């Protein structure tokens, strides 16, 4: 079975729709949605409703820091653009949509796979996996062979051998990577709704539970349409521009 790993949707209807269409074309049989469904983008209600329906149909979903901020208020560390988007977003969601976000778990485990937004060692602190050190700390915090997380908006893959040797590399889109059974793995698919690696195409990844192969994907989408929604909402222009440049 292929699991589509999608994270950091950030209220980007156009990107999420394109990724779902692509995943369907690749015969994805399950979906794991790794948080940050809202924030930054201009269509939070549509995205939350789509995620709710997918969860009702069997998808996995976990809470992200922007989802939490919409419920509890912006974090002190949030930049002005993010803070403005959080405050605007809360006013766009109804009671049922907010209740859905509030009920999201911090992490979920399925067989030998851990799904979490930020990291495995302290999910509620929202610390970033910015390099090998944080990745190894996360892998040491779980017995799962595979950890899939978001939060960082750039695709990345880390591994830890049984002897404690660590490694990392930036994946090439479209290339299947065999995840060897004698290692632990931590994969960051990259952001669906707001990529930040200089490539504006939406990110996600596919994990094959039979072959144990992981394939990172990039999907073009209607950036102009998504940017127009941000501008129509009166959100900061920088949030619209980022979609066009992927920075």
UniProtKB/TrEMBL annotation:
Residues 1-210 form the Calcineurin-like phosphoesterase domain. SUPFAM superfamilies: Metallo-dependent phosphatases. GO terms for molecular function: phosphatase activity. It holds the Pfam family Metallophos_2. Gene3D superfamilies: 3.60.21.10. CDD domains: MPP_superfamily (cd00838). InterPro entries: Ap4A_hydrolase (IPR050126), Calcineurin-like_PHP_lpxH (IPR024654), Metallo-depent_PP-like (IPR029052), Pesterase_MJ0912 (IPR011152). It comes from the Bacteria. One of its GO terms (cellular component) is cytoplasm. Belongs to the metallophosphoesterase superfamily. YfcE family. This is Metallophosphoesterase family protein. It comes from Paucibacter sediminis.
């Amino acid at each position: 079975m292929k699991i589509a790993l999608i994270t950091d949707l950030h209220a980007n209807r156009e990107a999420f729709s394109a990724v779902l269409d692509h995943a369907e074309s690749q015969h994805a049989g399950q979906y794991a949605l790794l948080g940050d469904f809202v924030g930054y983008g201009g269509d939070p209600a549509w995205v939350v409703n789509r995620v709710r329906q997918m969860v009702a149909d069997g998808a996995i979903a976990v809470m992200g820091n922007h989802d939490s901020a919409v419920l509890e208020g912006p974090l002190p560390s949030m930049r002005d653009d993010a803070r403005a988007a959080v405050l605007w977003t809360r006013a766009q969601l109804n009671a049922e949509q907010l209740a859905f976000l509030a009920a999201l778990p911090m992490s979920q485990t399925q067989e030998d796979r851990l799904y979490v937004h930020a990291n495995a060692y302290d999910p509620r602190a929202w610390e970033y996996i910015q390099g090998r050190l944080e990745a190894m700390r996360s892998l040491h915090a779980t017995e799962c062979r595979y950890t899939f997380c978001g939060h960082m908006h750039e695709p990345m893959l880390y591994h830890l051998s049984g002897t404690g040797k660590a490694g990392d590399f930036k994946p090439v889109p479209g290339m299947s990577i065999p995840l060897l059974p004698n290692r632990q793995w931590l994969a960051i698919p990259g952001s669906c709704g707001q990529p930040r690696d200089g490539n504006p195409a939406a990110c996600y990844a596919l994990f094959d539970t039979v072959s144990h192969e992981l394939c990172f994907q990039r999907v073009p989408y209607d950036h102009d349409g998504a940017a127009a929604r941000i501008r129509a909402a009166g959100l900061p222009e920088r949030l619209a521009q980022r979609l066009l440049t992927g920075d």
